[in-house]
Amino acid sequence: MEFRTTSVMSLLLPVFLSVVLMSCVSADNDDHGEVKNEYNELMFNHAIGKSAHFIMFFAPWCGHCKKLAPVWDQLAERFNTDESVPATYAKVDCIKETKVCHENDVKGYPTLKFFNPGKQPAKYTGKRDFENLERFMLEQLDKKKESVPQPPEAKHGLYELTEDNFKGHITEGDHFVEFYAPWCGHCKRLAEPWQQLAEGFSHNEAITIAKIDCTAHRQVCREHNVNNFPTLKYFRDGKEIDTYKGGRDHKSLKEYVTSKMAPPSTEAPPTQDIKKEEKKVEEKKIMDGPAGQTEPRESKVVILTEDSFPEGISKGLTFVKFFAPWCGHCKKLAPTFEDLARKVEDKPGLTAAKVDCTVHKTTCSKHEVKGYPTLMLFKNGNFVEKYSGSRSLDDMYSYMLRKLKESQKEEL
């Protein structure tokens, strides 16, 4: 009988431990959204043997622990549900769990240690801020942040920005950005109308609706003086032009964006109206063929993709325009770049090409494209330089001819 009881208990113990642990790791949230993940002795011993854990050993009365607590909760909020980062942030109260803390040589508060199964625990001794704690964790997991910025992807019209791609994303055109924190109640209430706003403007190439998590990308938020959440800012061509203070319902947000995008209402003198009409006519001439031709001219700009890029730049000099369809400056450059392609069409060794960075992201990331449009010159498959001159037809054409002559001299 005793043998049976022992056998049953041995079978039930792992189940009990798993249930207890899962109830802890599921991170009960209090009214303020703080992630608990507080382990007792049983949970701790079971958890660190199963997966990587970053543990804060603390005492409730400790001032430094109280100061670190919000940062630790932000890290837990950010990473404990991220499947790409196999590590859990948790805490152990050394006043309650004296044995655990003694066994792990905790002599002061807070003590931070990283536990990875099969390896010795690593004690953290650096600055106790989000960035440094995150970096330490990634180093322990042998993970590094990608150095090449990835263009943001829109999910139902809403762009999720990061420290790497924020600056490049807002460089051209209009952008309405929400600076938020996942635990923020007001941010959670704004989520639905903000998504509706993004979907409503998803087909408008003149503006993007975006958001950035300030718990994960604190540097950007500091640079833009974000002190509370959510903070909504309007950017144009890389510059912050306004902070939104109105209602956070969909109608108010939509009216605001529409008003910011609208041109000034002042009436222009008749001479200015004539100039505008003349400009439209000139732009139409550029896009249309000879007089009387109604169909657009066939483009002479070579379209490059992820697959065709290496072959496309492999011979001679190739002048490549990296662009995004929604980019205002790209649209302005488009007809001029078409004319450039026609002018070099009969010049052996010269090619004008383009890459859509919203589609072929790997190619643009590989060449560190951080703003649109970006113009680069390649020779026989190799990068030569980034073009930083005027975007007028004459200047770009002269540049290509000059580079062709230099190339020909080198080959003699």
UniProtKB/TrEMBL annotation:
Can you give the residue ranges of the Thioredoxin domain? 16-142, 144-255, 256-409
Which residues lie within the region annotated Disordered? 260-296
The biological processes this protein is annotated with in GO are: protein folding
Biased composition, Basic and acidic residues: where in the chain?
Answer: 273-287
Does the record bear Translocase in its keywords?
no
> Which GO molecular-function terms appear in the entry?
protein disulfide isomerase activity
Q: Which UniProt keywords are given for this protein, alphabetically ordered?
A: Redox-active center, Repeat, Signal
Q: Which PROSITE patterns match?
A: PROKAR_LIPOPROTEIN, THIOREDOXIN_1, THIOREDOXIN_2
- Signal peptide position in this chain? 1-27
A single GO cellular-component term on record = endoplasmic reticulum
Q: Which Pfam families match?
A: Thioredoxin
Q: Key word Repeat present in the record?
A: yes
Family statement: Belongs to the protein disulfide isomerase family.
Q: What is this protein called?
A: Thioredoxin domain-containing protein
What is the organism of origin for this protein? Patiria miniata
